[in-house]
Amino acid sequence: MSQSVHLLTPSNLAVPKHNISFLSTFNRRLPVTTTTSTTAVYVFPKLSIRAASSDREPFVIVTDNGTSSLGLQPPTSQPDHALSSSIEVDAVTEAELRENGFRSTRRTKLICTIGPATSGFEQLESLAVGGMNVARINMCHGTREWHREVIQRVRKLNEEKGYAVAIMMDTEGSEIHMGDFGGASSAKAEDDEIWTFSVRAFGSTLPERTINVNYDGFAEDVKVGDELLVDGGMVRFEVVEKLGPDVKCRCTDPGLLLPRANLTFWRDGSLVRERNAMLPTISSKDWLDIDFGIAEGVDFIAVSFVKSAEVINHLKSYIAARSRDSDIAVIAKIESIDSLKNLEEIILASDGAMVARGDLGAQIPLEQVPAAQHRIVQVCRQLNKPVIVASQLLESMIEYPTPTRAEVADVSEAVRQRADALMLSGESAMGQFPEKSLAVLRSVSLRIERWWREEKHHEAMELPGVGSSFSDSISEELCISAAKMANNLGVDALFVYTKTGHMASLLSRCRPDCPIFAFTNTTSVRRRLNLQWGLIPFRVSFSDDMESNLNKTFSLLKARNLIKSGDLVIAVSDILQSIQVMNVP
């Protein structure tokens, strides 16, 4: 068979316009009619896409053995005994689909940090009902036993209630940070108060207005007159005196001090790095926490203060060696000057990135943070890696039941940039209104997504090739073409059948207007897909026979009133590298 290749890309998808008349309006029920008798053939090594040669003949995909697996008509039905009676989908998404239809589904994913305010089973269930896709546990706080109980409750919630909440473990990192407050959940620093930052070891009770620092060289590195920033500048101090291991500081910007908050210090308008820059990215405690995460089977491990790709590669090799069957994704937190300098190589090495704006804003001038966020989001999408926008999204809701208008605008901008996920930190971990905070993220996301579809229809973005092989390039082109067709035809949903999640990720990268139903046969892949934009992950058993898979999913989804006859879908698969357009029978 000839191997001449004409990839089906957005640029050449329009080539057969003289052969096939695609409906350009949203009243788009098929079949599509042809206008000439000419046949156009596009050949891949294992498949070709042929335009029709006569009226109302379907678009056909032809494999090497001559069989067809793509048509505008639905596949032939299979015997009832061939269908499985089991399909797993998130309970909240299922309810949304039934009540409001395809276009109502939220595309931006939501992450909640779990803390004392939300660690109980009922509170976790309330967050799941409210739209939480990923539960984050922060190893800066709590004991491993406490985190183990949270993980068990989330797993129980998924098993008993039908959710697919993934678990992200966030390492502490080895940067300079404060200690605990002797049991207190927080402390308030007032203007002009003198506080002592000390590297000394105290008992269970700290002296009044005293804060432990984890870095032994802290008192040596700081100088009188330096500015000390707590938690990215939420509270500010000026160094006024050094007394051995103690550093006396005057509060210049009052605020709430939280346990384990990050510390940075500035001198003459520049960040003081010195020994801090030489601290290892992954501390000895972090390695113990990573062992804990591997043993507990978390879905994601977020690494703090990543300085280079080498750290990510080392961790991924370690995870593979410790658990050969592990499917843990590594998320790089971009929160330092080094992270920005080596951004592309870090993102390429990782499985995703987090824009940790709080700590990042402590290392670069505040006015540079918005541009840095935009750059990180764009690079992640171009390289096909999910990106999370985090830190201080709704900071005021830690204490108040409604956000500021500026916070709503900030959330809106992150959604408009098409970030995969938004993350709550203190708002859900120890805030007074965690469920209301999540509701704000959800409602703002839905509204901005709808506005984007209405006002910025069919957004164009240059997506460079990311495949490492010709087969990967075919998958990319199929997904780009499927997304373009979905927008042009106004289809109800995209279906993707994927064993590894890669093809679903490629579709998500294209940010199509319709939701993406991602079918996988692996529970861990299903949970991992819950982080990515626009994906509605289902778990269902399937075979290498695409016609059988389509009939099975059609039957199961129709039985649950999630789709109906006549709905228009486009299906792609990494099983056969195929693309199919059809009405639900």
UniProtKB/TrEMBL annotation:
Principal subcellular localization: plastid
Residues of the Pyruvate kinase C-terminal domain: 476-574
Keyword check for Nucleotidyltransferase: no
GO cellular component: chloroplast stroma
Pathway annotation from the record: Carbohydrate degradation; glycolysis; pyruvate from D-glyceraldehyde 3-phosphate: step 5/5
NCBIfam families per record: pyruv_kin
Any Pfam family: PK
Known cofactor(s): K(+); Mg(2+)
Protein name in UniProt: Pyruvate kinase
Catalytic reaction(s) noted: pyruvate + ATP = phosphoenolpyruvate + ADP + H(+)
EC number: 2.7.1.40
Organism: Prunus yedoensis var. nudiflora
Assembly with partners or alone: Oligomer of alpha and beta subunits.
